[in-house]
Design goal:
Elements: E1 8-15, E2 27-31, E3 36-40, H1 44-55, E4 60-67, E5 70-71, H2 77-83, E6 87-90, H3 102-113, H4 118-131, H5 147-159, E7 165-169, H6 176-192, E8 196-201, H7 205-208, E9 216-221, E10 224-227
Parallel strand pairs: 3-8, 3-9, 6-7, 7-8
Antiparallel strand pairs: 1-2, 1-4, 4-5, 9-10
Helix pairs in contact: 3-4, 3-5
């Protein structure tokens, strides 16, 4: 295990901006291929900020963040953008471009960050949509979709393109039981390919679920990331 290159590594990373940036702790994390980390953080703003940090889009005051062995701060912009094509993300809030249709929203990260062919992406997205309980690739405006269908569409977007890392910001909220089986199945596919995942939670459902397959259980607080035991 120790000789494998981490998918994601935070090395004494201290953010230059974001929530409580002036007193932000240094963060360290090593996520190996196949691993899933469950991180509890009470504030929703912390989830988005932490995910930005992992994606290399939040500036650092010190330390480093490495994805697939590469330090985000040392990469040319075009190279970093291409590398982000290997990261799937479910946003805690927003994340949709309102003036384009739902299908294009789903395909857009891969179209922007990779050279994947649109037809192949649509076929892969349609297969993922079926796995998450949608009748097909959503059409029409995102605003017209139900809450449940928007959540399912967000999962399709995040898992499209065989990501090496999946970042889930409070992915289930009050629909835990409804979406959990399909989401865990999708995560298992990523992990079996050697990818890794971060599940950022503010509530207690995943945290108290004794069947949740986390390799790491951590809490983010004023001291940084600390190992924590599962709730009783």
């Amino acid at each position: 295990m120790a000789d494998r290159e981490p998918v994601l590594e935070l090395i004494d990373a201290r953010a230059a901006s974001g929530p409580d940036a002036g007193a932000a702790p240094a963060l360290s994390l090593r996520l190996l291929p196949g691993e899933l980390a469950l991180i509890q953080m009470r504030e929703a703003a912390h989830s988005a900020w932490f995910a930005d940090l992992c994606c290399g889009v939040a500036p650092l005051a010190e330390g480093s963040v490495r994805f697939l062995g590469r330090d985000w701060s040392e990469l040319p912009r075009d190279y970093a953008d291409a590398l982000r094509g290997l990261i799937g993300r479910v946003f805690a809030a927003g994340g949709w471009v309102e003036f384009i249709d739902a299908a294009t929203n789903i395909l857009l990260p891969q179209l922007h960050h990779t050279r994947a062919e649109r037809g192949a992406l649509r076929r892969a997205a349609t297969a993922l949509a079926a796995g998450f309980g949608l009748p097909g690739l959503p059409i029409g405006p995102v605003a017209a979709m139900t809450f449940s269908d928007r959540a399912r569409a967000a999962f399709v977007r995040a898992f499209l393109g065989e990501p090496a890392l999946v970042l889930l910001e409070r992915p289930l909220q009050d629909r835990y039981a409804d979406f959990m089986p399909a989401l865990l199945d999708a995560l298992e596919v990523v992990r079996s390919r050697g990818g890794a995942a971060l599940w950022l939670t503010g509530g207690d459902q995943a945290w108290s679920d004794r069947t949740f397959p986390a390799d790491h259980r951590l809490r983010l607080d004023a001291r940084g990331l600390a190992s924590a035991q599962r709730a009783a």
